[in-house]
Amino acid sequence: MSTFPKWWAVPCALVLALASGVLRADDAADAAALHRAVAIEQARPPAPRFPRSAFLVDRMIDSVSLSPDGRSVAWLRVQGNQRSVWLQSTAGGTARQLLSRTEARQLYWSRDSRWLLLESPRQLFALAAVGQGGSGIVTALGGGERRELRAVDPLRDAAVVISEQVPAASPASARAWRLLRVDIHGKRSLLHEDADELAGFAFDPRGRLAFLERVEHEDLVIHRVDANGSLHEVLRCQRLQRCNLLPVTAPDGELLLRTDHGGNLLDLARLDALGTLHTLLTDPAGEADLDALLLDPVDGQPLIASWRSSTSAQRGLDTQTQQAVEAIARHFPQRDLDIQVGRGAQAAWLVGERGPTLQAGRWHLYEPSSGRFTPFLDDALVQQRSGKPLQPLPGAALARKIPLSWTASDGMRLHGFLLLPPGADPATLPLVVTPHGGPWNHDRPDYGSFGQFLVNRGYAVFQPQFRGSTGYGRDYVFAARGDFGDGRVQQDIVEGTRHLLAQGIGDAQRVGIAGASFGGYSTLLGVTFQPALFKVGVAIVPPADFGWDLRWVSRSNEALNLSRYIPFEAWLRTLSLDLGDPLTMARLHAQSPLANAARMRRPLLLIAGGEDHRVAIRGVLAYAAQLKLLERDVSLLVDDEAGHTNENPLAKEAMFYLTERLLHRHLGGVAAAPPDAAVREYLKKNLRLSGKDLRGE
Amino acid sequence: MRDLFKGELLRFRGWAIAGAVLHLLVLGFLARVVDLAQQPLLVYRVFGGVYVLAGLLLGLYQMGSYRRPNTWLNLLHRPLPGWRIAASLLGAGAVLLAVAAALPVLLIAGYQAGMTARVVDLRHWLFPLAALLIATCGYLAGAYCMLGGRRHSTCALVFLVLLAVSQAIGPRVLIVQALALLWLAAMVLVAFKPDLSAPPRSLAATVITALPLQMGVYLLALLLGFGMEMLWIMQGTHPNNMSVPPPGGHNETERMTAQQRMLAGLAVSRAPQAPLWREQVALSEVQPIGSQLAATPVRNELTHAAAAQMEFDDDELRVRWVFSHDRMRFEGYRLTDGRRFGELGVGTDDAAFPAPAQAAGSLPALPRGDGALIAGNTLYHYVSASHQALPRIRLPASEILAGVTPVGESLVVLSDRALYFFDGRDAAAGDALLSPRQRLPIPGRSGDLRDIDLIELVDGYLVSFSFTTYAHELTGVAPYQSVLWLDDSGHVTEVAHRAIGYDYPALYRYKAWWPSPALYALRVAALGLFAVVDPLDVTAPPPIPRRVQLFAGALMLLSLLAAIWLCRRRALSTPARLAWLLACAVVGLPALASLWLLYPAGEYATYRRRLRPATA
């Protein structure tokens, strides 16, 4: 038997010692930062209790957009089901209503700032913004041809780029895909037609189609388009490598893209003529994926990059822009900023201000020449149930999101957020762990109603970004290795919770777990396999068997929605979740809450939707039936009309109430105020199982 | 004869012209409002009823005016055979009805065909003939009611009932109507004799009169039973109307919610998973699976039970598509201006549908304006954007596709023999024909099947089939419920079989049979003449219970004994007497009643009086 040479032990030990030393140093720094942040929260004045309805609000302002010339701002105003289009000059004056009713969900400016493009599920409508005639439908969207808006044409004054499927000539023949330019009057010109689906495109600065990205089997392949229209492969993105083309190439004709090809983080990169990628911009903290990239409204070149994972950060791509970005960041410290740039003489910039303690967004005008900020627009809130206007909750009463990191037992650095009630001793607080859904998703450093509600009820809230979460690079996502049962991913959540408890945050005897979708699944795992840690669980739309649920989704229409280009099964297989592998499926099932229902002995609230296309209601019902048969303390609320997300305000309040009541009983937070008659009626109709708590036992 | 014919025409011409004008006005008004060629069966029945009534009144009035003894003798006292006189009168009546009933229909059909883009098929051009035949049947029935013996002449109405309930399909309906007309004409000719009160003498005349009479008595018996049922309902103890239906019976099962039905089935299950399933069912919304076909359409049928399904509107294109039996394609016209839009067939070349197609509503994930069409064993996707019908689901050729129901993320397709499960993803992606992931055979006959209830399990489906449709009568299977578990690998296990009780005693259920098994058989044969068996209506009736057979036999024996007694008191020849005895033995009470109605006691007395001098 061959063995390693003994002399290897010395360098190996050195490497390990160095690594552990680095990790210990990181942990110490993280712990110190955490304690500093906690101390700040503890020193804040306590917040009053707010009614549930204060957290159940809708924002009235949506899709705020600055015109490319920086002279006007347009937005959608939402009142119930009615949406209207509003416009205001950046030079002053009052806002005026351009259109009293629209189905648009998003609005854009044409490049010449003369048209507002209103995108609704069924059509793209051009609305004259400067009093000219000619408003009308640009193109239908959706339908059998699955036509979709790809971009406002970055180089033409008034045009858009759309894609569509060409219906097959017969069931036996294949479909084709088209990329088209459509002018504001609906005139179409074909840019490219292909037998493969088209995922991206890029024009050169003269407006000629220069690059195309096609879906070829399980890969995204970028092709250069020559003068004859022929395609030449220049880059192949495999195994879920992200390759998102910017719509305009660099001035020298080289392709710009956001990609993690050949690396870990999603960066801004340039592809040279030889097919070599050069990173142009990466997260200065070396931690997060590039989240957004603002393009110059005139030439389509990238201007400002944003990262939003543990913290929100922006960076200008040239010196002048970076100076402006720094000035804005100084003016709005610790805020998540959405910057829009106007071009031209005296053009203003628009700065959107968001943050965890800002329930309603605010927008400001920024004049780069003078460095002056002017408040421009405040979001208005309405109560979801009554539709009545409501003042936003004061920022002083809301919890900040404290980013934290810890080292998992296998040495991987993990991240998360902690929210604490202002002015409270963190060591005595009951702790609620709220894993996010997905699992391929992440919590962002902005306002979240559920977390703030729990904090207001006296709970410390921990939002773990377990491995598999997005936003922290490709390695972070792939580190899960498909271990989504009672395995590595769940261990991350448990270890993160124990790390917090070890830091003196939270009462170890009063820890609960609550989450939706995958967070709900994690909740079920927690109360099943870690009952000593988690004393109570609230699982919203939880798959009771993750593997089975993925297979169920793979047979449904939802699979087409979830995997945009890569086939759903291939996508999962790359993430080590091969639905066709009996061993994988058997492992996930053996470790599922469904197969281990007998081990679940904690009080549990299940909430599910009858029209959920992501989590099969039958899985939830089968699990609840097992628990009922085993006489466990379980409550089950099923809203037959609800999907994966329940938009019914009454349902949201009922969910808040039930959560509040259950957590209060078992963790000792603030007692729930009794529900009103409408919520009682809703509960009476939809509560199919009542646990001991709801039965008053 | 010609003068008589012309005289009758002139006598009623004013009424005929007025009737035709009124009829035309009504049809014209309706044609402006609706498409008269695409109306539900009920509308055509109402029109048919009006034609029959018009004919009936004409027959009663016309013959009533001649029936008074002197007038009748004057009518017959002509140098013409009786049948030619009858033919003159009846021919004139038929012509009058052709003007009043058939001509307006013909004109409206011409208007629709020539001046609108509506579909007018060959079958629609037969409507005027059908109107004429129906009206003439009514007319002849009215004539016989007036000329036949007062004790039995209303038996002619039997043929009008036949017209209403015949199951004949397509142009062959006209043959049934023509046969009824011929029989009625024969009855009138038999009755067209100097002594209107005399019973028929010849064998043929006796058969022509007695058979409808016996069927009439049989129908009267059914009507009597129906009347008694009304009293039962009023009393409040009828199982259909009891606030709490009899426990364990089919009414109870039918009134259950889908969830209750599933739980009732699982209550008798001995499967080890049954307790868990019961808990899950109690927590679940159980999904009913239904059929979208009221009846399987047949090419060239004159009317259709669900005519509304033979057309559908595309709200995106603002086009109405109407199925043409001649073209076997949908014909489209614009809802905005009524102008022709085009033709919709199968695929890009608009091929003919292999069977009459019906609209089956929309399906999840279909774009707005799109919908589903069902034709024979195939489900088509109607694509509004390209106005094409693309085949998406094709069942085996021997099966009829009856409906499609979205269940969770799957599509469940019902045929006359099985349930098929298709993945929703396949349905949403592409235009290719779908392959079923699973097939679940129906554990019984489609016609008996009343309720299908389904819940999704983690490891498959639990499906309850309740066979109670005809549990109240003799054509249905003995009611039962079967609960099947279709596991994820496609294996089917019956996890519960529940026998459901009858709510009605056997004599009630077989009330159409025991009064006269022979006439019941005749009724079934008459109704089924030229009919096409609908695969969705096939049942598995059990054998007739022995006690019901004994009861029917006893009635026949009683009829025979009573007939022996009655024949001794009627002036009948020996062959006739033997024939009547045989008829009463075979047909039972209706034959006995017909014997009594055809040969009144007065005949017997006359006979006895005639005998007495001879024997003196």
TrEMBL record, chain A:
InterPro entries: 6-blade_b-propeller_TolB-like (IPR011042), AB_hydrolase_fold (IPR029058), Peptidase_S9_cat (IPR001375). GO terms for biological process: proteolysis. GO terms for molecular function: serine-type endopeptidase activity. SUPFAM superfamilies: alpha/beta-Hydrolases (SSF53474), DPP6 N-terminal domain-like (SSF82171). The keyword Metal-binding does not apply. The keyword Hydrolase applies. Residues 1-25 form the signal peptide. Residues 452-653 form the Peptidase S9 prolyl oligopeptidase catalytic domain. It comes from the Bacteria. Keywords: Hydrolase, Signal. This is Putative peptidase. The lineage of its organism: Bacteria, Pseudomonadati, Pseudomonadota, Gammaproteobacteria, Lysobacterales.
Automatic annotation (TrEMBL), chain B:
The chain crosses the membrane at residues 12-30, 42-64, 85-113, 125-147, 159-192, 204-226, 518-536, 548-566, 578-599. Coiled coil: none annotated. The keyword Transmembrane helix applies. It comes from the Bacteria. Keywords: Membrane, Transmembrane, Transmembrane helix. This is Putative membrane protein.
